[in-house]
Amino acid sequence: MLGRFSPQRYSQCFKTFVKTFEQARFKSNESIRRFISENTETGGQLSLTPEVKLRLLTSNCRFWRERPELWPFDDPYWAIYWPGGQALSRYLLDNPDECQGKTVLDVGSGCGASAIAAKLCGAAHVIANDIDEVAAIATQMNSELNSLEPPVCVSENMIASQIQGVDLILLGDMFYDEALATSLHTWLDNCVRTHGTRVLIGDPGRAQFQSHDIRGLLRPLVQYELPESVKEENYGLTCSRVWLYHPQFFK
Ligand SMILES: C[S@@+](CC[C@H](N)C(=O)[O-])C[C@H]1O[C@@H](n2cnc3c(N)ncnc32)[C@H](O)[C@@H]1O
Hints:
By secondary structure, this protein is α/β, with parallel strands linked by helices. It has 8 helices and 9 strands. The strands form 2 sheets. A 7-stranded mixed beta sheet has the order 5-4-3-6-7-9-8, with helices on one face. A two-stranded antiparallel ribbon has the order 1-2.
């Protein structure tokens, strides 16, 4: 039977087998925490928010060069501090009134930086929502790194669900995919219309964001030039903006 496989097919099956085997090793929270601390480096100092410490995948980490099939999880979005999230977190830290005493929901929270910024600004209640369960563990570890109680972490997809009691929704670098952008647009419209929720979006000028209909409903609040190292890691991006969702029916 093996003879009927092409070398490419064989190599693909082998990679899938290795990946499945690697995944099976990380069932408990404890083993995932250990993996994160062994395979990330405490960074963030070269970001727009040097005061927030984060465990990130850097060039000093094994998996910067390692065979990708040995990575035991989905793509590690939570191990990167995205330029949209950096601008959003910077804006919150500079404008603590946005969060003070509020209930804040960070959707697509990744490493948890914006949720952590909201906590540092005195939010009454913070929810970090990311469909990647490993992101929840990374967020807990990053909160501890900043001597904070972790936010409530939710891994279910909340987009399209009814949310109540949330004053502020944060979206850092969530407009990287056309279909996701469209579902966010519909959902945010509903949140704002039904509950009057305030919505802040951080984006570094991604094509899917710039060309989307939602852009016509947003008002720019602030623009930051990205630090040199962030520009190098995100080829072609030079600045990142924070936008306020401000639909026509508010005018
Ligand atoms: C580009 S990263 C941004 C992470 C973080 N906000 C930042 O700026 O550093 C996008 C994140 O959105 C998460 N995500 C994608 N679709 C989602 C959904 N429907 N609900 C919640 N999170 C989602 C991904 O798992 C990923 O962690």
